[in-house]
Amino acid sequence: MLILFEHPLSPYAQKVKIALYEKGIPFEAKIPDLFGQTEQVFLDSSPRREVPSLIDDGFTVFDSTIILEYLEDRFPEPPLLPATPQDRARVRMLEEICDTYYEAINWGLAEIQVFGRAKGALADELTARGGKQTAGMHRWLERELGEREHFNGAFFGWGDLSVYPYVAASALWGFPPPAGSRLAAWLERVAARDSARLCAEAVASVMASFQNLGPLVEAGAFVREYRDHRLEWMIRSGGLDVVREGLAKNNIRFHVEID
User: Are 184 and 121 in contact (CB under 8 A)?
Assistant: First the structure.
C-alpha cells in the first residue's frame, strides 16, 4: 500500500489525496510530528521536510505536482488530465497560479487568525489585503471557469483538484466566493464529491488543535516555513515587521539546507 506523508490542512496534500481518492488507490496517510521530532522515513522521503511525500513500494516522490504526475503515469485510469495538449496546459497553469499565488494569501490569513503573528491595526490591514487579493483570485477563477461545469473541462480532474483546496480554505478564513457566482456553484458541486468531503472532514478533525497557537509560536516551539511566495506575500502586504520579529525570535524558517 502507498504511504502518504501529509497534513490535512496542507492544500498540497489535499490535491494528492483527492487524486488518490478519485483513482480509487488505497493509501495510508501519516502526519509527521509538527514539532520537529519526526520519523526518519519521512525525512528520507522529503529532503525539504515538506508534505506531501509519497512512498510506493520503497520508491519515494516529493512535491505535490510531481506526485500528481507520478500517479497519472503509474495509475492512468481513470485519467485526471484532459485529453488535448491545450487543455492539459490550461489546467497546469491553473495549478501553478493556485500553488504559488493563491496559497500564499490563505497561508498569510492563517498566520494572522491562527498563529497570531499580527495584532490590532496591522492584523486588520493584513486581513483586508488578503480579502482584496482573494476577491481578485475569485474573479480570475470565475473567468477561467467560464461556462464549463468543471475547471478540467468535460469531467472532474486535475484542474478542479488544483483549485478546490484554495477556494475551500478562503471560505474557512471568511472569504467565500460571491453568492450566486458560477465559482460558488462549482464549489458546492465539488464539495459534495466523496474525495473532497473526506478532505473537508480531515480538516475539521484537526482545526480544534490549531486554535490559539500564538503562545507556542511566541515561545519558538512552533516554527513556520516562510518559503518564497509566502515571504513575498507577507512583505508586499505590509508585514515586514512580522518577518523581522520572526527572524529575531527564531520562529520562522526557510527551506532546509540539504546535506
Answer: no
Q: Domain 85-210 falls in which CATH fold?
A: Glutathione S-transferase Yfyf (Class Pi); Chain A, domain 2 (1.20.1050)
- Displacement of CA 135 from its chain's centroid (Å): 18
Residues 6+ apart with CB under 8 A from 190: 156, 160, 164, 196
Q: What is the pLDDT of residues 113-138, one digit of tens each?
A: 999 999 999 999 999 999 999 999 99
**Does the pLDDT value for residue 37 go beyond 70?**
no
Nearest of 243, 248, 239, 242 to residue 220 by alpha carbon: 248
DSSP assigned state of 99: I
CA-CA distance, 37 to 104, in Å (whole number)? 26
Instruction: Please answer whether residues 233 and 107 qualify as being in contact, where contact means their C-beta atoms are separated by less than 8 angstroms.
Output: yes
In the chain, domain spans: 2-74, 85-210
The string of pLDDT tens digits covering residues 154-193 is 999 999 999 999 999 999 999 999 999 999 999 999 999 9
CATH topology of domain 2-74: Glutaredoxin (3.40.30)
* Residue type, position 169, single letter: A
Neighbours of 235 (CB within 10 A): 13
pLDDT digits (tens, 9 = 90+) for 90-99: 999 999 999 9
Give CA–CA dist 168/114, Å, rounded: 17
Predicted TM-score (pTM) of this structure:
0.96
CB 238 within 8 A of CB 126: yes
Tell me the H-state helices in 75-157: 85-97, 103-113, 120-145
Give me the amino acid identity at 236: R
